[in-house]
Amino acid sequence: MKRLFSIIAATIVALTATAQTTISVEVSNPLKTDRTDQPVVISLAGYGDVRSALVTCNGEELACQLDDLDQDDTYDELCFLVDLKSHEKRRYVVTLYDEGEPRQYKARVYAEMLMRNDKVKEKNRHDNYIESITARGDCANSYNLQHHHGVDFESELNGIRIYFDKRQTLDLYGKFQKRLELKETQFYTSAEQKEQGYGDDVLWVGNTFGLGAFRGWDGKEPTMIDPVRSRTQRIVSYGPLRTIVEIVDRGWQLPATAHSSAEGTAAANSSLFTLHSSLNMTIRYTQYAGHRDTDVDVYFNRDMSDHLFSTGIINVKGSQEFSDHKGLRACWGTDYPSTDTVKWSRETVGLAICIPQKHIASEEPANKDNYTYVVKPDGAHLSYKVCYTSANEQFGYHSAQEWFDYLKAWRKEVDAPVVVK
User: Fold this and answer.
1) What pTM does this model have?
2) Sign of dihedral through CA atoms 118, 121, 124, 130?
3) What is the pLDDT of residues 34-89, one digit of tens each?
4) CA torsion 326→328→333→337, rounded to 10°?
């Protein structure tokens, strides 16, 4: 009898070890234009402990990615990218396994964080890789803790670093060719690499928004993310199809912010509205392969729909502005980037931000620094997208008109994502 129970138990274990779930996923393109690298994201809640996955279409394997978003060692989402022609509909088969390791595919995105090593002579040869860093709010100089001053990430088309200080600004790397470069240049391209066709820093940001930094709002102008109890940068996912990085601000003491309601605005203008309130905030940046745009999601630890914040893009010197007055705002201009670039030549860039109308409280007139939006969360969340091009690109846009025309088409895609069933 004991032997019989042992056999039954072993059989159950064997069956459990090979358990799998198959899902049929239909994806359709609602637009009449062909589309490439469109993300399909599937929540794994309710599918048990998924350890590996396989995605196929008509028997052909597609690259896919499993992500542990909350870092509890359990995968939360499956992601894969699809190409669809005009109004095309395709069916994909997703198989989830409770054993094994995620399949390995060619990396199409990259992210890194590096601690500074002042003993290294070549400024782009650091190898002190880290995955997360937290600085107390009274840290004297968090900006210089990391090489390239904060986390960076890229797709084949773009490269972004986020400053690890109260500005939390997005600074930009312009490429000549479609490829991953930040592992080699570490955002500081050498003269030799420049001769080989590598890109470089293409934007001076100072205290501006740069490309869509998220800030507070005091009723008149943007405010920095300061003071805070602590600030953290971390890499949540390295790829191969999307990289996810997060900025976490704990104990942010908000300014005496104007509320979004008429009553709140009146309170903000009164002498009674002087109390500060503490807030925890996580800003998540998601970069998909094949994309020059980046998704920004801002999460709060409580309902903030009665508070106002700000974001926008830098007013590049002498730039031309474009706005559809429905949440898409852009510019095209030329200026000197930071002094760490090779030969410090002027660079031409096109920048853009796209915000859902439900989040827009006002579109502020341009000033010498920024094109500003005043924004309001929907409960405890707010989202938008940022996008840019460098005129150095052999594959991109080389005039304001070309850039603005591209953005009009991009807006249509943003408003009509692929439909997943």
Assistant:
1) 0.91
2) negative
3) 999 999 999 999 999 999 999 999 999 999 999 999 999 999 999 999 999 999 99
4) 130
Q: Which residue has the higher pLDDT, 338 or 102?
A: 102
Phi, psi dihedral angles at 415 (to 5 degrees): -80, -15
Q: State the Cα–Cα distance between residues 254 and 260, nearest whole angstrom.
A: 15
Average confidence (pLDDT) over 169-188: 96
Average pLDDT, the chain: 90
pLDDT, residue 19, reads 67
Sign of CA dihedral 120, 240, 169, 227: negative
